[in-house]
Amino acid sequence: MGDFFNALGDIATNESAYRNAIIAAVVLMLAASGELVAEKAGTINISLEGMILGGAFAAAIGQHAFGSVWVGLLFAMLAGIVVAWVQANMSHRLPADQFVVGLVLNVLVLGVVGFLASEIEPETNIVGRVRIPLLADIPLFGPALFDQPWVLYLVYPVVPFVWWLVYRTRWGLEVRAVGEDPNAADVSGLHVNKLRRQTIYLAGLTAGLAGGYFLFARAGQFEDSLVGGRGYIAIAAVIFGGWTMKGTVGGCILFGLVGSFVLTIPSLGYESVDPAFLAMAPNVVTILAMAFFATRVRQPSALARPFLRGLK
Amino acid sequence: MSDLGTTSTTIDEERAEVVAQARERSRRGVTVEVIGLYVICISIALALAAILVAVTGGSWTAVYTAMLDGSIINSGRIGLTIGVATPILLVSLGTIVNGRAGLVNIGQEGQLVMGACFAAFAAARLDGPGPFVLVVAMLIGVVGGALWAGIAGVLRYWRNVPEVLSTLLLTTVAANLMGWGLRKEWLLLAPASGRANRNQVSEPLPDDTRIPRVTWFGNEFPISAIVAVLLAIVLAVVLGRSIIGFRLRMLGTNPGTAMRAGVAERRYGVAAMLVSGGFAGLAGGFMLAGGDFGNYQLVANFGAGIGFAGLLAALVARQRVLIVIFVAFVFGGLRTGSGFLRATGVSGRIADVVQGLLVLALLLPPAILYVRERRRALAATSARV
């Protein structure tokens, strides 16, 4: 046990561990910010995983074909929106169950992307680091936050922008109303399912971006195990954060830290820990975190409840 | 008077006949509409997959021919398909149970792996006559799967954790636990004498603890397939004709009513999760002892997506037990069929694409019909007003 705490101490003072943690946390943050909006409107968007994976693959194709990271990111967002389009229209125009649709989409995207990747084999590479002067000189956290692949800096505008959308615009107010009491929202003239579809498109956009970011910042080369359940952890982060942006970002950072610290443990010379436990640690921590915090927060009242006007 | 009476009867009869004819016509119309919708949706799904193959330079006719050959046409392949479909069917039976209770269990893959691990552990430790060991090991597999799903059930009802997420997250945990167990000789790893060096596999089941295989019309399959179909029938009766089934359905469709009618939400909900996981665990045990998945032993990545296939089969069959038997067979066929794809030079992953597209396509018709029905009903009410 002493060994374990020594390891924790070593990790807590290890700069590259923080750097990796932030890289891992940002993919969660980008995806979770859109997911938060969708959940605020009443959808648990399980297809987030598929959106991220689709985004990562499209980004790879974009860079492979056009040689530009920007085109890659654009493709990534489009791919996320395509997945979102299916999810939104099947669960909020037609009355298919949102979990069913989401799950099927995850399986389908994995199949399509795996198939295409084995046929095309896109070649991509990690983008270079850009150091932001002064800010990057802060000890310990500075390099993690401000000396990173430049795509990471996208998170700084995106997350506050999504927060602004939800909490400071008319649209955001309507979205929150739809998630709390769809019947009241409907009576006051809001188009409930249309608003819900829009939030899913937004989730697709940010999740696709998350996939593209992850490809360019960490993976470098596309493979179909790239996302590996991060979408589900992002959803858990929203629940952990009690459906607030602050809490969600906190959850993403926590899960990112866990995910990267377990990767750092062997490289610091603590090889006695079985890799299986390291691999499952993020999921276990996520489940435990939800078990401790999920009862203390209030979810949007109409979460995961489909809305049908009139007769039920 | 009597004249009048008879005329009015004939008029009534005539009217009744006209009404009956109209009803019959509309019923036939609706059936045609339903079948037509399904045919259209399935064709679109298959066409999309074909386009995907053609775009990437493959031959889609070769792909579909190979898949048909590999799943049903070549001799003996139907038996193989039945063997593969068996665990898929069991997993979907469990999914139907939790679906009836309004719970979304999507972690069958992990529950299946856990069941297989428990069964393998028990089979390697128990002494006694083979069939006895086999039965006990399968039951222990059921317990393993049930416990794994039970975690999610307990978290759902006592800690408010959505079971959608916890079941899924637990799947990865289960896979890693198996990987860990396969590195420890006191857990699952086979003794060094029984395996190639550094191979992480469990001890193969001895001959007499394997599930017996039968041959019908040149198709060989394990008798677990028959057990699975029998279980399906039992489940259909229990869900459709018993008080327990009724209460589960009530809990799923209207928890408020269920509460007022005295259905203990936690008890029935957790029980539904346990049963669901138990079916997945049994599927894992059958995969281990059935012989259609490797050499009667655990290997890395043992689940092979069977849990997810079973889940999808239940969703496609829209929670109806007897239809699920057919769907499970189709999904089993997609897997055995994909084994023949290597000859065509197209990646075997196209089978996953076909499966996903098919599921998505099969979700559409009921949804479309529902919307149309509602629109008609609304139009009818507004016309009356």
Describe it for me?
The complex is a heterodimer of chains A (312) and B (385). Chain A has 312 residues and is mainly alpha-helical. Chain A has helices spanning 2-12, 15-40, 48-66, 69-92, 98-120, 141-146, 155-168, 170-180, 182-187, 192-219, 230-240, 245-267, 275-293; strands at 129-131, 147-149. In chain A, 71% of the residues lie in helices and 2% in strands. Chain A starts with a helix and ends in a 19-residue tail after the last helix. Chain A contains 13 helices and two strands, in the order αααααβαβααααααα. The radius of gyration of chain A is 20 Å and the shape is globular. Chain A has one domain: ABC transporter involved in vitamin B12 uptake, BtuC (Orthogonal Bundle), CATH 1.10.3470. Chain B has one domain: ABC transporter involved in vitamin B12 uptake, BtuC. In chain B, strand 1 (213-216) and strand 2 form a beta hairpin. In chain B, helix 11 runs parallel beside helix 13 (350-384). At the A-B interface, helix 5, helix 11 and helix 13 of A face helix 6, helix 11 and helix 13 of B.
- Rg of chain A: 20 Å
Amount of beta strand of chain B: under 5%
What pair of chains forms the biggest interface?
A: A-B, 49 and 47 residues
Assembly context of the chains: heterodimer
> Radius of gyration of chain B over alpha carbons?
25 Å
Largest sheet of chain B: 2 strands, antiparallel
Q: Reading side by side through the largest sheet of chain B, how are the strands ordered? A: 1-2
Q: Give the number of domains of chain B.
A: 1
Could you tell me the CATH topology label of chain A.
Answer: ABC transporter involved in vitamin B12 uptake, BtuC
The pLDDT mean of chain A sits at 87
* Spans where pLDDT lies below 50 across 5 or more residues of chain B: none
Report the CATH architecture of chain B.
Answer: Orthogonal Bundle
Low-confidence sequence ranges of chain A? none
Number of strands of chain A: 2
Distance between the termini of chain B: 38 Å
Broad shape of chain A: globular
Helix content of chain B: over 70%
The SSE order of chain B reads: HHHHHHEEHHHHHHH
**Averaging pLDDT over every residue of chain B, what do you get?**
84
* Fraction of residues in H or I helices of chain A: over 70%
